[in-house]
């Protein structure tokens, strides 16, 4: 999202945005985004751990719920991030083999 905002500012205000963008500001924005993401996820985890789930009565229900969650996270990674990482990996390998020749 931060990169999208940066690109928007660069396109909308090409000259003025040159003074707005710097390495220090980018570091601050990245740190702020990471802290915000951590705060949101941490509060969600605390909420889930502290609330009682009355509909989960047996340990097998908890286990099946954990398995479903693990599989869904794995599938999200495979669908969203694996293709990009694969393309990046093949590009790096191609560049490395070209430099050796």
Automatic annotation (TrEMBL):
Transmembrane parts of this sequence: 31-50, 66-89
PROSITE patterns: G_PROTEIN_RECEP_F1_2
Keyword Transmembrane helix: yes
Location within or outside the cell: Membrane
Domain G-protein coupled receptors family 1 profile: 1-101
Topology in the lipid bilayer: Multi-pass membrane protein
Keywords assigned by UniProt, alphabetized: G-protein coupled receptor, Glycoprotein, Membrane, Receptor, Transducer, Transmembrane, Transmembrane helix
Name of the protein: G-protein coupled receptors family 1 profile domain-containing protein
């Amino acid at each position: 999202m931060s990169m999208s905002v940066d690109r928007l500012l660069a396109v909308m205000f090409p000259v003025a945005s040159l003074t707005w963008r710097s390495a220090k500001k980018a570091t601050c924005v990245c740190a702020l985004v990471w802290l915000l993401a951590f705060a949101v996820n941490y509060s969600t985890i605390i909420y889930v751990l502290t609330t009682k789930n009355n509909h989960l009565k047996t340990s097998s229900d908890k286990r099946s719920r954990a398995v479903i969650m693990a599989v869904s996270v794995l599938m999200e990674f495979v669908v969203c991030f694996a293709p990009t990482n694969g393309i990046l990996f093949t590009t790096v390998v191609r560049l490395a083999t070209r430099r050796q020749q």
